[in-house]
What we know:
Chain A is mainly β. Chain A is 0% helix and 62% strand. Chain B is built from no helices and 13 strands. In chain B, the strands form 3 sheets. In chain B, strands 2, 4, 5, 6, 9, 12 and 13 form a 7-stranded mixed sheet that branches. In chain B, strands 1-3-8-7 form a 4-stranded antiparallel sheet, with no helix packed on it. A two-stranded antiparallel ribbon of chain B has the order 10-11. Chain B is globular and about 40 Å long.
Amino acid sequence: KNEVEQSPQNLTAQEGEFITINCSYSVGISALHWLQQHPGGGIVSLFMLSSGKKKHGRLIATINIQEKHSSLHITASHPRDSAVYICAVNTGNQFYFGTGTSLTVIP
Amino acid sequence: NAGVTQTPKFRILKIGQSMTLQCTQDMNHNYMYWYRQDPGMGLKLIYYSVGAGITDKGEVPNGYNVSRSTTEDFPLRLELAAPSQTSVYFCASSYFMSLAGVYNEQFFGPGTRLTVL
């Protein structure tokens, strides 16, 4: 069983749609991270959360510590948002990663 | 700042050969990590380091070795390469202060695509 589960695995949306990607985890964490991996392979960190909600532009990340669940929302999606979104949890010194959600936004 | 740099970008090895993947960061981060990413799988932690001279195993350490003689550098050594080590390897760094509970995001290198034939 994976420590981090993401859903959906694949997601196709029309430009402008509101998108939600979910992440559930089974371990105690000190922080949860959302990462974006571009088609070229580079990985960038979008958010680091230990409670509540964070917003950067059109991206919103929430976490519910009691339910061990986080969501990443993209408002007014755009083709340039097409990427793989990865949820990761930090348990002290170690990190565990979900398998990613592949998002394609069609113009 | 260059951030996290990795060399080489691509490499093909024959079974049984050895090589070192280089990783350097210029952000004075104390934590550094090596991950591998296989198709359709999440990133898996190979080794990590909490500071110069200190390393520890992650989830999938077999077949690899690391060292951390300086804050900046964290090379990953593959001895006796095997086809199962064909993967994309990412190095990352972050800053973590356990007493204060301060930690920041991970910064990733561009990756090394390794094929073992």
